[in-house]
């Protein structure tokens, strides 16, 4: 753990929860237990439905305007392009590559960033102290770099990491108490 907090290039103006002063957190997805990330809990974003022929917005066939319902090109597939007058299945309507992902459960608000290699933590029931992530995310804390002198930064709890132990101290936002990994909590009670 380093004691150099870095520089807040945002000057306290961005990537901070204005209600409580806790900075947003950034963590590499590769630092996490990948089962937690790819277990289906995240909402995946494949972009807007579009027509591959012309690039215009596609509509669900069920939303087809009445004047097109009996058109000879309306084959009853999932999506339609009114410009090209064609219908197609959903696998043709969306990007093959995921554009991003988000998680909004259990008090967390997470979204992927930087080509889906990092998670941006904009709300959490937990915080830690970390180095500033500046200049890539001015004002945010990089929880991959814990720092005792760094800003209070939203983080993920122990369950998100291999062996259910975060590489930093975890504190509860509600009461500022330290949250120990289950293994240490059990050992301290013995």
Model description:
With 190 residues, the protein is mainly beta. It folds into 2 domains: 25-43 and 101-189, no CATH class; 48-92, no CATH class. The protein has helices at residues 34-37, 182-189; strands at 25-28, 43-45, 59-60, 79-81, 86-88, 100-105, 108-113, 118-123, 126-132, 141-146, 152-154, 170-172, 178-179. Strands 1, 2, 6, 7, 8, 9, 10, 11, 12 and 13 form a 10-stranded mixed β-sheet that branches. Strands 3-4-5 form a 3-stranded antiparallel β-sheet, with no helix packed on it. The longest helix is centred in the last third of the chain and has 8 residues, at 182-189. It is elongated, with a radius of gyration of 22 Å. The two termini are 29 Å apart. 27% of the residues are buried.
Overall pLDDT score:
88
| CA-based shape | elongated
Q: What is the alpha-carbon Rg in Å?
A: 22 Å
Assign the structural class, choosing from mainly alpha, mainly beta, alpha/beta, alpha+beta, or little secondary structure: mainly beta
Number of domains: 2
Q: Biggest sheet, in brief?
A: 10 strands, mixed
Number of separate helices: 2
The SSE order reads EHEEEEEEEEEEEEH
Q: Give the distance, in angstroms, between the N- and C-terminal Cα atoms.
A: 29 Å
How many β-strand stretches? 13
Q: Which spans have pLDDT < 50 for at least 5 consecutive residues?
A: 186-190
Strand content: 25-35%
Helix content: under 10%
């Amino acid at each position: 753990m380093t004691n150099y907090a870095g520089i807040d290039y945002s000057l306290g103006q961005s990537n901070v929860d204005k209600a409580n002063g806790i900075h947003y957190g950034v963590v590499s997805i590769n630092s996490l237990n990948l089962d937690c990330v790819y277990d289906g809990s995240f909402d995946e974003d494949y972009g807007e439905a579009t027509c591959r022929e012309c690039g215009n917005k596609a509509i669900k066939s069920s939303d087809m305007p009445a004047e097109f319902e009996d058109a000879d090109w309306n084959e009853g597939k999932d999506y339609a392009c009114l410009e090209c007058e064609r219908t197609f299945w959903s696998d043709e309507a969306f990007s093959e590559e995921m554009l991003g992902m988000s998680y909004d459960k259990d008090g967390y608000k997470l979204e992927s960033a930087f080509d889906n290699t990092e998670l941006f933590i904009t709300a959490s029931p937990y915080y830690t102290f970390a180095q500033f992530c500046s200049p890539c995310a001015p004002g945010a804390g990089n929880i991959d770099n814990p720092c005792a002198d760094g800003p209070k930064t939203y983080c993920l709890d122990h369950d998100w990491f291999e062996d259910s132990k975060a590489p930093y101290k975890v504190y509860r936002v509600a009461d500022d108490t330290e949250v120990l990994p289950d293994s240490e909590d059990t050992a301290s009670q013995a």
